[in-house]
């Protein structure tokens, strides 16, 4: 369910949670239990022991979470200003791990125009407009989550915990505001934690906000994780086209026609150039 200071809290699926330590051999094998893992454990007097980490369907690097059906990327239509480079990197990670991404544009009550502008940039993904304040989108969100395991990810103060409280008011998770000096979010969620939402039979991982993330890819493979590039890329002159400086690039032509959002393409170029510099 969560890990804090070397202790891991494991549910037996019957309403009991056990505080466990991980076997020392996991460290030697380069393994670490992650929120969302399925494990075999032994309940011992004075503290349990995780004996095995069962094979993972997938695992995210940041936020650290395992066995996810959907990645719910939460963006703010108000403050803090959305970091769309970070968003694009998280979407790349989801695509790479074959996790279905869903974009939640939250705080729509603060700036509807901004919310619609963000939605247009991500038209190739499933996008839902939400407001934890007004309850907008909460019903459709429950249907998206029904019977699934999902992970909320995004910057601090975009409303991840507030949305979870709307999904299940009994959670009463701590929520935070913005720093008056920087207009950036204050951290309230301090570790990834798994919750069961009975109303939609879903397991949801709430995660701490963050602002830095590296994809772990190289420049040549990044483009394949952009869904809106795939059809256009088939018409590029070169099969290995990176859609940057190559001639007769069909993706660049699609950007010029307005078929691919220019903002998304320009951020893609920034990402691959930063990978090249590294």
UniProtKB/TrEMBL annotation:
Binding site for Zn(2+): 236, 241, 243, 249
Places the protein is found: Cytoplasm
Binding locations of GTP: 106-109, 154-162
CC cofactor note: Binds 1 zinc ion per subunit.
Entry keyword Cell inner membrane: no
Domain EngC GTPase: 66-211
Matching PANTHER family: SMALL RIBOSOMAL SUBUNIT BIOGENESIS GTPASE RSGA (PTHR32120), SMALL RIBOSOMAL SUBUNIT BIOGENESIS GTPASE RSGA 1, MITOCHONDRIAL-RELATED (PTHR32120:SF11)
Protein name: Small ribosomal subunit biogenesis GTPase RsgA
Species the sequence originates in: Christensenella massiliensis
């Amino acid at each position: 369910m969560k890990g804090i200071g070397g202790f891991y809290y494991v549910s037996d699926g019957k309403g009991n949670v056990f505080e466990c330590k991980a076997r020392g051999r996991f460290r030697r094998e380069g393994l670490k239990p992650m929120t969302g893992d399925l494990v075999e454990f032994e309940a011992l007097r004075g503290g349990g022991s995780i004996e095995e980490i069962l094979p993972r369907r997938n695992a995210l690097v940041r936020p650290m979470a395992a066995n996810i059906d959907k990645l719910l990327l939460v963006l703010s239509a108000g403050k803090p200003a959305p970091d769309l480079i970070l968003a694009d990197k998280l979407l790349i990670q989801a695509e790479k791990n074959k996790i279905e991404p869903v974009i939640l544009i939250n705080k729509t009550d603060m700036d509807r125009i901004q919310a619609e502008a963000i939605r247009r940039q991500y038209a190739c993904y499933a996008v839902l407009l939400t407001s934890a304040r007004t309850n907008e989108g909460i019903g459709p969100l429950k249907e998206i989550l029904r019977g699934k395991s999902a992970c909320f990810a995004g910057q601090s103060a975009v409303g991840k915990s507030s949305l979870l409280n709307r999904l299940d008011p009994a959670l009463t998770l701590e929520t935070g505001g913005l720093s008056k000096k920087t207009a950036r979010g204050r951290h309230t969620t301090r570790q990834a934690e798994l919750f069961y939402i009975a109303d939609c039979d879903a397991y949801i991982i709430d995660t701490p906000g963050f602002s830095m993330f590296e994809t772990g890819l190289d420049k040549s493979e990044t483009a394949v994780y952009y869904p809106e590039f795939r059809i256009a890329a088939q018409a590029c002159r070169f099969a290995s086209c990176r859609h940057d400086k190559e001639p007769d690039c069909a993706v660049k032509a699609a950007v010029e026609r307005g078929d691919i959002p220019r903002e998304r393409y320009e951020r893609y170029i920034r990402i691959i150039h930063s990978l090249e510099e590294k």
